[in-house]
Amino acid sequence: MAVSKKLIISASALVIIAFVLWIFGSRSVAINVAKQDCRQVEIGENEFCLWVADSFEERKQGLSNTYLGDFQSSREADGMIFLFDEPTVQNFWMKEMLFDLDVLWIADSQVIKIDTGIKAPDFAGEEPERMSSDPYAVSWVIELPSGSVNHFNIEAGDKALFSE
């Protein structure tokens, strides 16, 4: 009798833990910028709707903890644009990213550098990849889901126009 009672308690505990993990694991973490309207940005021949990160807190948060599936299915935005007051060398990292990215570095309304297929960490605690606009000073950085650069034929030299 004692063994079956322990077995029932253990099984019940596992079911509860699995349920809690399922509930919290299937939810995306909301980001404040996602509540904003997206802004239209033309890159070459393509038009994208991008969430804007123009404050320190929004740039710090970026797309971290956003699930790609929720991001794509929401149809709210195609990516994110980070705006800076002064052109400077910018350094980014993939901390707490849940999907891979393509990154466009923009100066003087032109794509000057492209990083593609930047890997999100595979597990918590893994050192995130880092990227930089170096040696270029940039005023905008655009993050798109990995594969976007190839899919939309974006190239260095393409014009990038932001609707104010």
TrEMBL record:
Gene3D superfamilies, alphabetized: Protein of unknown function DUF192
InterPro entries the UniProt entry points to: DUF192, Saro_0823-like_sf
A family per Pfam: DUF192
Top-level taxon: Bacteria
Name by which UniProt lists this protein: DUF192 domain-containing protein
